[in-house]
């Protein structure tokens, strides 16, 4: 079992460290051919418009859709959540459009409004430390999408079958339990 982190932009090394701490092999993915050797994929944070442009430039859009259509788990964090979403508020076109969620970009404010908090996440025993940096918000979810966590009544983590998404950056803390949750999804 090998998990990849899409390495076009974002906190790649931190995700690799967290996945390895959760007991799985992890690699940086820079070419679509690498998807063939993976059992799961993480789309990290960064800037969703830039990630989307780079995914189009390097032919990752259709390749990741096919990867997902095979039932292989995909986990999007922060900008990665936006990339997974079926609908992006104020934007005509989605990127991958895989997850039946509507998201709002930068819903938690600008860089200076970044914060950390502890969140209860369905399926994880103790609260998880979460870092919010210009974080998006899941405005609504379709049927078949399970809300895993809320912050102040707003959805910040969700799962739809083999797709997992969080508004926050779990890779920026020493708490790797959300990555463990994803590794367990991949093992299933």
CATH class: Alpha Beta
Count of distinct strands = 12
Counting H and I runs of at least 4 residues, what is the number of helices? 5
Structural class, by secondary structure, is alpha/beta
Q: Determine the strand fraction and express it as a percent band.
A: 25-35%
Q: Any idea of the CATH topology?
A: Rossmann fold
Task: Say what oligomer this is.
Answer: single chain
The domain count comes to: 1
Helix content: 25-40%
Radius of gyration: 15 Å
Q: Going by CATH, what is the homologous superfamily? A: Class I glutamine amidotransferase (GATase) domain
Order of helices and strands: EHEEHHEHEEEEEEEEH
Average pLDDT, rounded to a whole number, is 93
Q: What order do the strands of the largest sheet run in, or round the barrel if closed? A: 2-1-3-4-12-11-10
Poorly predicted runs of 5 or more residues: none
In CATH, the architecture is: 3-Layer(aba) Sandwich
């Amino acid at each position: 079992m090998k998990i990849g982190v899409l390495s076009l932009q974002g906190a790649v090394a931190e995700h690799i460290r967290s996945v390895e701490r959760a007991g799985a092999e992890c690699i940086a993915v820079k070419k679509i051919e690498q998807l063939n050797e993976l059992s799961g994929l993480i789309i990290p944070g960064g800037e969703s418009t830039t990630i989307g442009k780079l995914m189009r430039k390097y032919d990752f859009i259709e390749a990741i859709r096919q990867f997902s259509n095979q039932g292989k788990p995909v986990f999007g964090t922060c900008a990665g959540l936006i990339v997974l979403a079926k609908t992006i508020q104020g934007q005509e076109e989605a990127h991958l459009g895989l997850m039946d969620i509507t998201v709002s970009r930068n819903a938690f404010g600008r860089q200076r409004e970044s914060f950390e908090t502890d969140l209860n996440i369905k399926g994880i025993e103790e609260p998880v430390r979460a870092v919010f940096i210009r974080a998006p918000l899941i405005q609504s979810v379709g049927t078949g999408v399970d809300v895993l966590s809320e912050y102040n009544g707003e959805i910040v983590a969700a799962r739809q079958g083999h797709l997992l998404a969080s508004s926050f950056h779990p890779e920026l803390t020493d708490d790797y339990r959300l990555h463990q949750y994803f590794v367990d999804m991949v093992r299933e």
